[in-house]
Structures are given as C-alpha cells and as structure tokens.
Design a protein that fits this description.
The protein is α+β, with helices and mostly antiparallel strands. It has helices at 9-14, 33-40, 56-66, 70-78, 132-139, 142-145, 149-162, 164-184, 189-209, 212-221, 234-294, 310-331; strands at 16-23, 26-30, 45-52, 84-88, 91-102, 105-116, 119-126. The chain has two domains: 4-266, CorA soluble domain-like (Beta Polymerase, domain 2, 2-Layer Sandwich), CATH 3.30.460.20; 270-331, Methane Monooxygenase Hydroxylase, Chain G, domain 1, CATH 1.20.58. 58% of the residues lie in helices and 17% in strands. The protein has a seven-stranded mixed beta sheet with strand order 2-1-3-7-6-5-4, with helices on both faces.
Length: 335
Amino acid sequence: MLTKAEIPASDHALGVVNSAVYADGRKIADVTIEEAGEWSKRPGHFVWIGLFEPSDDLLQRVQRQFDLHPLAIEDAAKAHQHPKLEQYGDGIFIVARTAQMVEGRIAFGETHLFVGRGYVVSVRHGASVSYTTVRQRSEACPAVLSEGEDYIVYAILDFIVDNYLPVIEKIHAEVEAIEDTVLATTLSQRDIERLYTLRRDLLRLRNAAGPLVEVCNRLEHAQLMAIDKAMQPLFRDVTDHVRRVREEIDALREVLAFAFEASLMAGQAQQTVIARRLAAWAAILAVPTAIAGIYGMNFEHMPELKWAYGYYLVIGIIVAICTTLYVQFRRNDWL
C-alpha cells in the first residue's frame, strides 16, 4: 500500500488527480493504478480514481484494472461526446457536459464516469471545476460516503449541475445590463453582437444540460446493475436541478430575444422620427424654393417685377407660410 506521497509522480503527470480506496465511509489509503483493481474486489471497499485529460496509456492501465469496455474507453479518450448513459455488463458509462465562464464566454468541458461494483473512475476534459471539493465533502461525512460508489456518482452529477448556476448568474447580470441599455438608448453594433453571442452560448448550455434529465431518469428508474435501488431516488434531486437550469436558460433566451426586438423597434422608431423631421424641413424649404423658382423664370412681363414693394411682399409670404408650417409640424410632434 502506498501513501499519496509515494504514488509515482509519473501518474500525476499523466493525469491522475487522485486515487484512493474507501471502506465504511472512510478513506483507507491512496493507491496506485496497478493496486486499484485488487482493492476494488475486496468486500466493503471501493476505489475512487480521478483523472484529468489522461493519456491513452493511462486509460489502458485503468481499463485493465476494472475490465472496462473498449468502446467506453475510446469515448473517454476522444472527449467529444453527447451527454449519455450506457451500460456495459455490470458497469455503466456516463457522459456529462461541464461549463465555466472564461473571459466572458461559456467554455465547455466533459466528465466521463465509469461506475461498477467497487470502483468509480471520473475523467475530466476541458473546462471543469476540480472535483476535489466533492471528495472533501464526501470524506467529511462518513455516513453518506458509506453508501459507496452510488453516492459518488450522485455527488459528482449534482456538483456538475450546481456549477451551471454561477454561469447563468453571470449571464443574468449581463442580460439585466443590456435591458437597461435598451431602455436608455439604442443598442450599438457591439451590443447587438454580444446579445447574439449570449443567445448562442445559452443554447449550447441548454443542449449540454438538457440531456442530463434523461441520464438521471435512467439512473432513478432503470434497473441498472451498478446502482443500488436505495440510492436511485437521489437522482430525482439532480433531475429537478437540471430542469430548473433549463427553465432559467429558456427565460434568459426569451429576455435576450425581447431585448433584440426592443432594440429593433427603438431603432425603427428613431428612424421614423428622423424621417419625419427631414420631411417636415423639406416641406418648409419647398415654399421658398417654389416661389423663387417662379420668379426665376426670366419672363419679361411679370407684374410684380416693377412694383416697388414686390420683394417685401414675396419675402413676407414666404416667412408667413414657412412659419405656419413650422408651427403645425411642431404641434404634430414632427419637429
């Protein structure tokens, strides 16, 4: 038996985050990958191995210890899987998508779980919060940890879903800021691009979280050999959390859609106001233009041309008509 300090450094370099054996709700020891298979076969014991972006060689070593199905190992190595649950003999293979906010964008990762009697292997890829917190909480509560590998699966899935919420909260704050901008002024091109990006990211998050409902339903109701019936109701809680996340995402996408429509309507209203003002000034300027055009036709016999007060009369008529038009347009809120 090796302590954590004695576990080969090469394993950690290849992606082993943690590898420990538990019994009766308590941690017995840290173990190497090569020891894990033997420990998992002991009655009342189970091994929990955490991997992060492991090499193919490391996955092969884990496969040999627990006799994992080659197709599941192949999926875990590719890390571009749709959320799902598959059963291979006495074990199950679960894929869940993780999410984090990175520089204003949602970054997605994956977690693959191999679960069987006596072992849980979690494989993380991409953007994902470390499951050290899950391990620490579980180890601090022997009563729940004594439930074995079934509880670990529940704890990890629940942790994944709970970490969707900080992402949604950050987007919610940004959506509220966009709403305030829409009410105050017309959105800029940059704001519209950001709005579109948020809607697209929320759709991707919905596609990542939504399938977990089916996964948890199968864990709760299906006759899966790797999950104890007494533990199955716990997955109903995860299902409820996923549904709440999905509802929050749908609500945010609707708000963004309304914000976009409101921005378009505000832009159209502003264009209408500008068009009205231009039309009003065009009508006012048409009066002197028309009169000046008449007296600029260069006919020799025009009665007003010889009249001493003709110029002042024409100017007065122009001012009177333009003033009348201006007042009317102001009353109609065109100017």
